């Protein structure tokens, strides 16, 4: 990290974790001469959502944009050295009332090239004999999905960006100056002001506060969630990343497992306190219900992190605010899917800035217009 020694850049990015670093990388790929600054107050990323994430990346979505972002991002992550990519697959499991949505999503996924199988109750039980399936009706098993180490992914993207000439500035954006529909400069907590042609809000759970500095409302709130590392002495066959409709989600990790159960009703706010009783009261019963082997599991560690929850529809906001802030771009609100979509989203923002359009993937339906018009574009099925 450095302090700002330059007063003008072509692009200034607020937020230097996985999303901001991805934007920076792709800007330099598309326009090597572009001068890019990433402003990040937390040089060790202590509270960044990236390093507190589970690392999962999957194609099991209903919106074509999310599927295609995963298609690109997973291939990109798997090609990076030292990120610990594990092609362990994903398994979505549903009771009878979830079958129609699972089948509809399966059709869309297949249309977009996803290697996914639909399994009925008998097939689920045969493939995963340790799993209780009598209350399930079906599952979707995507064999090419998996997980990586989020911290290594962040550091890899940051290293790549810095080697391309991106400046990482240890500071915090606290305001902007604008002239009608054009943002002119960013004020930093240190007192410095940086002028730029384009600005990017990649502040994650803090993105609502950053956009509010130019009067741009975002329906994005920080949502605390817990991740647990747990072990069981009982044998279980190799498992993919398992998810259900109640938002139980876990995957293998070393000798044990990493996962949790998101409480969608958690009060919004910047809360990093850890409830050490949550695993026993909420997660363990769900695990033990689904896998008898987890009746004897033991939670080794619990930590908290934040989702940047888009309260409108759970999908990200990717784009600018035409006619109000033409050169100010938002890439936030991923609602738990930020790490897995960071490469594709970073490329998309870079294309908007350099090419002035989405060139590789048309992500127009994820733009700010739906927020301004209060028209949700939501995922169907498991979040």
Radius of gyration: 21 Å
Can you write the helix and strand succession as a string?
Answer: EHEEHEHEHEEHEEEEHEEEEHEEEHH
Specify the helix fraction band.
25-40%
The percent range for strand residues is 25-35%
How is the biggest beta sheet arranged?
8 strands, mixed
Q: Which homologous superfamily in CATH is the superfamily of the largest domain? A: FAD/NAD(P)-binding domain
Unreliable parts: none
User: Any idea of the CATH topology of the largest domain?
Assistant: FAD/NAD(P)-binding domain
Spatial separation of the terminal alpha carbons = 35 Å
Mean pLDDT value:
96
* Name of the level-1 CATH class of the largest domain: Alpha Beta
Record keyword descriptors for this entry.
single chain, 383 residues, alpha/beta, FAD/NAD(P)-binding domain, D-Amino Acid Oxidase, Chain A, domain 2, 2 domains, eight-stranded mixed β-sheet, 9 helices, 29% strand
């Amino acid at each position: 990290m450095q302090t700002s020694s330059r007063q003008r850049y072509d692009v200034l990015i607020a937020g230097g974790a996985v999303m901001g670093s991805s934007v920076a990388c792709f800007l330099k790929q598309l326009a090597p001469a572009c001068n890019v600054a990433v402003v990040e107050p937390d040089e060790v990323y202590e509270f960044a959502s990236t390093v507190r994430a589970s690392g999962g990346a999957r194609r099991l979505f209903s919106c074509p944009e999310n599927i295609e972002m995963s298609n690109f991002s997973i291939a990109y992550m798997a090609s990076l050295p030292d990120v610990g990519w594990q092609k362990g697959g994903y398994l979505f499991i549903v009771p009878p009332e979830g079958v129609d949505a699972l089948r509809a999503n399966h059709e869309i996924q297949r249309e977009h090239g996803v290697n996914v199988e639909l399994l009925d109750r008998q097939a689920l039980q045969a493939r995963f004999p340790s799993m209780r399936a009598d209350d399930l009706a079906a599952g979707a098993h995507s064999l090419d999905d998996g997980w990586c180490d989020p911290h290594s992914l962040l550091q890899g993207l940051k290293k790549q960006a810095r080697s391309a000439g991106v400046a990482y500035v240890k500071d915090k954006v606290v305001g902007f100056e604008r002239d009608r529909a054009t943002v002119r400069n960013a004020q930093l907590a240190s007192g410095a002001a940086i002028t730029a042609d384009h600005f990017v809000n990649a502040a994650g759970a803090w993105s609502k506060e950053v956009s509010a500095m130019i009067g741009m409302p975002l329906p994005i709130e920080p949502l605390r969630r817990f991740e647990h590392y747990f072990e069981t002495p009982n044998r279980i066959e190799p498992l993919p990343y398992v998810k259900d409709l109640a938002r139980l989600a876990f995957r293998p990790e070393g000798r044990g497992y990493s996962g949790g159960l998101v409480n969608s009703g958690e009060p919004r706010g910047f809360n990093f306190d850890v409830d050490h009783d949550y695993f026993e009261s909420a997660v363990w019963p769900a695990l033990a219900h689904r896998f008898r082997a987890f009746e004897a599991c033991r939670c080794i560690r619990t930590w908290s992190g934040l989702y940047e929850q888009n309260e409108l529809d759970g999908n990200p906001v990717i784009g600018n605010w035409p006619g109000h802030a033409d050169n100010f771009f938002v890439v936030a609100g991923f609602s738990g899917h930020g790490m897995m979509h960071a490469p594709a989203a970073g490329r998309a923002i870079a294309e908007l800035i350099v090419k002035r359009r989405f060139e590789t993937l048309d992500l127009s339906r994820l733009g700010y217009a739906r927020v301004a018009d209060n028209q949700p574009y939501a995922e169907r099925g498991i979040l």
